[in-house]
Design goal:
Helices cover 74% and strands 0% of the residues. By secondary structure, it is mainly alpha-helical. The longest helix is centred in the middle third of the chain and has 56 residues. It is rod-shaped.
């Protein structure tokens, strides 16, 4: 009859206990280091993957790699040079702002993908390790199980906290909203002269349009990166979260 998983784990723990003290502590040190090394190796790969996916999803987006310099405004001959320069400057600033917010959104999305993935994987692994710990309770469980559980559970709590402290959901949403807002203003500028050529009576003049765009940009302008230091966990809070999953002594 095949042994139960609990019996196999107990025999493995008993075999480790028979080893010299330096072997035991070496095993504990390795079990402590493995999750940290895995996180260090996975983090840049997860961020790079998320950024590559975002680039594929946004393949047809404007200002993906740099602010575009075309199409440009086709000024009528009767427009004053100063007015032309100001309109060109406004269009250039809109494109730079759109590129900035798109870059921030992509960066925040990559970080968010990495944080959520690591937190989820660590939580699942910690839950799996918790099963054999629950058979005998925390005090009776060997350090070869409790040490990896504490490290991996701590990693899950830490990375879950990152998403809250750095407000990654809000930052991605705010930057994306600002990006599309600047795109709408860019389209409005590019449509100004064609609209005015068809209906000059109802479309405001260039001077008034400059003022209108200044007001629109003023309402839209924001630094779309925020943090929430109040969500930084305390030591007691982390302890409570980890202990919530630790089985009591039977």
């Amino acid at each position: 009859m095949e042994d139960a998983p609990q019996d196999r784990i107990e025999r493995a723990v008993a075999a480790v206990k028979q080893q010299p003290w330096y072997i035991k502590y070496s095993i504990i040190l390795v079990l402590f280091a493995i999750p940290l090394i895995a996180i260090a190796m996975a983090r840049p790969r997860l961020v790079a993957y998320a950024e590559s996916r975002s680039a594929a999803w946004l393949a047809h987006a404007r200002h993906l790699d740099a602010p575009a310099d075309s199409p440009s405004l086709r000024h009528p001959a009767n427009i004053d040079t100063v007015v032309q320069e100001r309109l060109d400057t406004q269009l250039k600033d809109l494109r730079s702002a759109a590129y900035y917010h798109l870059t921030v959104a992509r960066s925040m999305f990559g970080s968010q993908y990495m944080v959520v993935t690591i937190a989820a994987v660590a939580a699942v692994i910690a839950g799996v390790i918790l099963v054999p710990i629950s058979w005998k309770g925390w005090k009776s469980a060997p350090p070869y199980l409790t040490v990896p559980f504490l490290v991996i559970a701590g990693i899950a709590v830490l990375f879950a906290t990152f998403n809250q402290v750095y407000q990654q959901n809000e930052n991605v949403t705010n930057s994306t909203t600002a990006y599309f807002g600047y795109l709408a203003l860019e389209d409005e500028m590019l449509s100004y002269y064609p609209r005015r050529s068809r209906d000059s009576a109802s479309v405001i003049g260039p001077g008034a349009f400059i003022h209108h765009m200044d007001q629109q940009v003023k309402a839209l302008r924001t630094f779309a990166i925020g943090f929430d230091p109040s969500r930084i966990p305390t030591i007691s809070g982390v302890q409570e979260q980890i202990e919530a999953g630790v089985p009591r002594e039977r």
